[in-house]
Specification:
8-stranded parallel β-barrel, M1 Pyruvate Kinase, Domain 3, about 500 residues, TIM Barrel, 3 domains
Length: about 500
């Protein structure tokens, strides 16, 4: 048996003890955030604060040291940060020859209790789910979905229906909800309803040719950069071009939220249609901004009204809820089980929605934060703690917009961090954006999509978009989730017997 170095053990004791001290201090410093949380979420809020304190430090050397002792390397402390630290301290005390000398501490949650609380919160927000899998399936429904199609989706395994309130109107949604409720009653499968409010979603309002320009922007082989004017109003473009002495061909592109233009600054990035085209603001004049195009997918992109615009570097001074959102909330308060807050950026955005729900006597509705912008990611812990003032809370990891704003390479780690923080807060997460999109549209999945669907088993819910093959896609993802349920629990591998392990 290898003899452990007492000095190394003492070093580890000091390091883990310091982590525990920082966790407790962080809790006390932010006690007001815990007190403001709904009683159902106070344990999660406390655990989240402990986890945030621990993750402010680089633990990699300590993890290697603990692993060399045969101890937990703190790689799965999300659900029970303080209890995990105390368990390691107790084991180190035993290795140091001082077992039982440390008084037991109080923990907001343990591993088992954290697992139970997270599932309780998922059940309250997303429904009971189905036997054989932990992850629910959410499907975005078209407004004209027929009852027989809804019954097929429920029988295939749909647990949550999503209504995108940026499309259709209250009359259309009411008809859909009625058909869905009847389909659920006839099949015996319960189904929760999420309504996503549109939010302040900037889109192209109009595309106009200027001086012979084309509606298609292409990157010339010579390496030149085409330009476009993003404007509040078309008349602003002529004034801006005259003031800036900018000639040549350019497109004038209007924005559905004109005041966005006032917030742009030189150097800010602008993306069009989920990143199919991207550029950089070169100059800003009264009512318009000149954008130089840096890239276009496949070298050429045609600009069309209705396509989305992203401004990852810009602090947008726009209201979190539009007049349309407020009207839609009247419908949502009467018909939905939860509401999705689109394009949330600051804690005050969350507070505004909570106040609007309370004014409609709908504070009981679940509140789902859609994390889809760079500002939302940067402020995510405070957004989450603010949302936890409500009784039922969830987080949608909207990976499409985040990929545009933060880049695909950065997205790989961002989606992991969001899942960890949700687990630490004991709040259910929804894995969203183009899951099994090829299967849904063409009937054949890609290898990458299958891997992505398997990864979604670490969330409490996975969202599918509407498509021609949506019923088959629900069947497919349910099969994947049931298989992964036997192998994976969040970051923890479950060691069920492997059929390929036998040599005879």
């Amino acid at each position: 048996m290898t003899c452990l170095d007492p000095h190394t053990i003492e070093q580890a004791l000091t390091a883990v003890g310091a982590l525990r001290g920082s966790a407790v201090e962080h809790e006390e410093r932010h006690r007001a955030l815990i007190d403001a949380a709904h009683p159902a979420h106070r344990a999660g809020a406390t655990n989240l604060l402990h986890y945030l304190a621990v993750r402010q430090r680089d633990l990699r050397d300590l993890q290697r040291q603990l692993a060399s002792f045969g101890l937990s390397s703190l790689g799965r402390l999300e659900r029970c940060a303080l209890a995990s630290l105390d368990a390691v301290l107790g084991a180190l005390d035993a290795l140091a020859g001082r077992p039982g000398t440390r008084p037991p501490g109080e923990h907001p949650t343990t591993f088992d209790a954290g697992e139970s609380l997270l599932e309780d919160h998922a059940r309250a927000l997303l429904g009971e789910g189905r036997p054989g899998r932990q992850t629910r399936v959410m499907v975005t429904l078209p407004g004209d979905a027929r009852k027989r199609d809804l019954k097929r989706l429920l029988e295939a395994g749909m647990d949550v229906a999503r209504i995108n309130c940026s499309k259709g109107d209250a009359a259309e949604w009411a008809g859909l909800v009625g058909r869905l409720r009847r389909a659920a009653q006839e099949t015996g499968f319960a189904c929760k309803i999420l309504c996503d409010i549109a939010g302040p979603n900037p889109r192209v309002s109009i595309v106009s040719k200027v001086d012979g320009g084309s509606a298609r922007l292409a990157l010339p082989e010579s390496g030149g950069r085409p330009q476009l004017w993003l404007c509040k109003d078309l008349k602003d473009v002529k004034r801006a071009r005259a003031a800036a002495a900018e000639g040549g061909e350019a497109l004038a592109v209007g924005c559905t939220i004109p005041e966005v233009v006032d917030d742009l600054r030189p150097g800010h990035r602008v993306f069009y249609d989920d990143g199919r085209l991207g550029g950089t603001v070169k100059l800003v004049t009264d009512g318009a901004a000149l954008v130089e195009v840096d890239f276009a997918r496949q070298g050429s992109v045609k600009l069309k009204p209705g396509k989305g615009l992203n401004f990852p570097d810009t602090e947008l001074g726009i209201a979190p809820l539009t007049p349309k959102d407020l009207e839609d909330l009247d419908f949502i308060a009467r018909h939905a089980d939860m509401v999705g807050l689109s394009f949330v950026r600051t804690p005050s955005d969350v507070e505004r929605l909570q106040a609007e729900l309370a004014a409609r006597e709908a504070a009981h509705l679940g509140l789902v934060l859609k994390i889809e912008t760079t500002p939302a990611f940067r402020q995510f812990p405070r957004l989450l703690l603010t949302a936890m003032r409500s009784e039922n809370v969830g987080v949608m990891v909207a990976r499409g917009d985040m990929a545009v704003e933060m880049g695909f390479v950065r997205l790989a780690e961002v989606q992991e961090e969001l899942l960890w923080l949700c687990e630490a807060a004991l709040v259910p997460a929804i894995w969203a954006t183009q899951v099994l999109e090829s299967l849904n549209k063409t009937g054949v999945p890609t290898r990458g999509e299958v891997t992505d669907a398997a990864m979604s088993s670490r969330a409490e819910c996975v969202m599918l978009n509407q498509g021609e093959n949506i019923v088959a896609t629900v069947h497919f993802v349910v099969d994947v989730l049931q298989r992964m349920h036997e192998h994976q629990d969040k970051k923890r591998a479950l060691l069920r017997p492997l059929s390929v392990s036998r040599l005879d």
